[in-house]
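Recall the central idea of this unit: under ordinary conditions, the amino acid sequence of a chain determines the structure it adopts. In this exercise we apply that idea directly, starting from the sequence alone.
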Amino acid sequence: MKKIYLSVLSAIMALFFTTTASAATGEGGVRLITDTNYYGIQGYFTVPSDVFVSNDGSYIAFYFGFGDVCEGGISYNPSEKWKKFLNCGKNDPKSNKSMPLANQPNAGDSIHIKLVNNLNDTASLYINGIEAYTLPVQNAGTLKAPKKVKMVHTTQDNQDKNRYKNAAFSNVQVQTSKGGPYTTFPTNITPVFPFPSGKGDYEIIRSNPLATTLKAGK
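Accordingly, the structure predicted from this sequence is:
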């Protein structure tokens, strides 16, 4: 009886530790999304310090988006370093582009990011005032009206080793009419965290606009 009890206890403990370890890897992040539809979103991104990302398909990314239709901003992985990207459809190369930044930023540098809904099933990404991409959506009809907008800090962390300190959005603004002025991102919104499923060891330094630190697994 004692041997059986110990065997069952060992199995339970093994399952617990396996679940705990696996829950710390994969995709995770922090997201702020509006309740109201807007035509554009812009703001400044402060490049974090102490960046480490595993060279295994892992990455960190900081971006704006129109719902789940288009997402554009800045990301980092060891092979390409810091790059700009616009993703309006993962399965269509016409709708998904990325390229390393010509001038690689240093920790603490500020990068202006703007994402515009053109209301014709295309979105435009601007980096430091220069148009990076204008891409069509993969699914026709999904970007012909204003959308909820979001700001996101996220990671794909395949070994639970990714880390950085003090990544931040600031002076984030939304566009309330086509071609109209920008106003402050709504202040009454709280972040969805953890997003999407509890992975990533994030510390929220500031909730709106987002500022975070990502810690490597213990």
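Confidence is low (pLDDT under 50) at residues 1-23.
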